[in-house]
């Protein structure tokens, strides 16, 4: 199978490129390097530096490499940034996905895997959320992904394309062999921030809100190890390659941890003190988001390997320690 990986120079896309390579598939990366890194793409994987919104470039890439499937990771993904810049998010995530889909249709690509997000659900409920729950995003980031899901469904129906939409919950951790991990500069994601603080790379961190209606007052999330998330993508490609029908599936483990529990786990696993200051709530944060992942397990026969918060933290710690030793301040 020949796969175009958009955003393949980034955190999750980079793990996908390694998994495709490990499985003996050819891939081509398309990335504008806005948050990704050229060095994170293996030398034997072609990297096209460009934008998913560049219709001619994408069409030419799809044709030149006889691409069978697109896995579309490229996006902006910071919730607070999206609240400040909704037009930027809709342009990058929705309008440019439209252009990518148009090129895919023109090139006759029949299968598409799309990185969506639990942010499409908004403040759903305190129970695990299933795919048929109402969508009510709290941020332009979430709505930019929801709109792309709608567009993909309609384009697929009209043009004989089949797709898998994967709605990721909170992705964390690093490749257990330490070949790749999260490199995003000025990261805002909780586990990375907490680990960097424990390692002394940040003087302290903030807990955004301790007055939520949860047992300890902090928000609850379902943290999924990036390698388990990638195995869901590989199952999705197998499913589509075998002629499987289009589907939407949540990617999470089905249980959540509060912000305070995550910070305590980082303290325990690292064995280091970690100063966490109480701060105001962050805009756009839902209280609790936990996945009902029944569909992922049943339709794609997905089985997680790293469903353990301490393991996720340990892999993040090893990755951040390696970055620090190499003097990479990311
Ligand atoms: N990290 C998470 O917790 C999380 C959760 C849910 C969904 N997601 C989704 O997963 C995907 C990947 O996220 P990530 O964490 O790897 O982020 P990332 O920033 O590390 O990767 C995104 C990559 O896309 C590239 N990119 C962005 N816009 C582009 C464009 N217009 N054209 C070409 N390349 C472009 C960037 O340079 C980067 O390499 C995103 O679609 C994101 O919405 C991530
Ligand atoms: O320094 C920090 C960082 C985060 N948090 C809190 O930790 C929780 C998780 O926050 P993250 O920023 O790590 O992740 P989000 O839940 O905001 O969003 C992530 O998961 C979502 C799905 O659940 C989306 O997919 C999105 O792309 C991705 O960034 C939130 O309650 C947040 O307020 C802190 O208290 N302090």
From TrEMBL:
EC category: isomerase
Claim: Isomerase is one of the keywords in the record: yes
GO molecular function per UniProt: UDP-glucose 4-epimerase activity
Keyword set includes Phosphoprotein: no
Record text on subunit structure and interactions: Homodimer.
PANTHER family: UDP-ARABINOSE 4-EPIMERASE 1 (PTHR43725:SF53), UDP-GLUCOSE 4-EPIMERASE (PTHR43725)
Family the UniProt entry places it in: Belongs to the NAD(P)-dependent epimerase/dehydratase family.
Protein name (Swiss-Prot/TrEMBL): UDP-glucose 4-epimerase
Lineage: Bacteria, Pseudomonadati, Pseudomonadota, Alphaproteobacteria, Hyphomicrobiales
């Amino acid at each position: 199978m020949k796969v175009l990986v958009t955003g393949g120079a980034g955190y999750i896309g980079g793990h996908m490129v390694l998994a495709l390579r490990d499985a003996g598939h050819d891939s081509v990366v398309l990335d504008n390097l806005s948050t990704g890194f050229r060095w994170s793409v293996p030398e034997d994987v072609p990297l096209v530096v460009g934008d998913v919104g560049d219709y001619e470039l994408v069409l030419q890439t799809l044709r030149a490499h006889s691409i069978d499937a697109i896995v579309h990771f490229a996006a902006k993904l910071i919730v607070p940034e999206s609240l400040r810049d909704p037009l930027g998010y809709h342009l990058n995530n929705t309008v440019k996905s439209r252009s990518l889909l148009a090129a895919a249709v023109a090139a006759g690509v029949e299968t598409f895997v799309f990185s969506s997000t639990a942010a499409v659900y908004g403040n759903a409920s305190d129970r695990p959320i299933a795919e048929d729950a109402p969508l009510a995003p709290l941020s332009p980031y979430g709505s930019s992904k929801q709109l792309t899901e709608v567009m993909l469904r309609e384009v697929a129906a009209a043009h004989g394309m089949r797709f898998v939409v994967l709605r990721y919950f909170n992705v964390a951790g690093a490749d257990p062999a330490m070949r790749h991990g999260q490199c995003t500069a000025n990261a805002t994601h909780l586990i990375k921030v907490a680990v960097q603080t424990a390692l002394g790379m940040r003087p302290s961190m903030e807990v955004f809100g301790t007055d939520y209606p949860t047992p300890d007052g902090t928000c609850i999330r379902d943290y999924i190890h990036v390698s388990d998330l990638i195995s869901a993508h590989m199952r999705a490609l197998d499913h589509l390659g075998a002629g499987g029908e289009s589907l939407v599936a949540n990617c999470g483990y089905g249980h959540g941890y509060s912000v305070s529990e995550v910070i305590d786990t980082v303290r325990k696993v690292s064995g280091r003190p970690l100063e966490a200051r109480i701060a105001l709530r962050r805009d756009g944060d839902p209280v609790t988001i936990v996945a009902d992942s029944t569909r992922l397990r049943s339709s794609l026969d997905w089985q997680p390997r790293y469903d353990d918060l301490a393991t996720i933290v340990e892999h993040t710690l090893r990755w951040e320690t390696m970055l620090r030793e190499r003097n990479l301040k990311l």
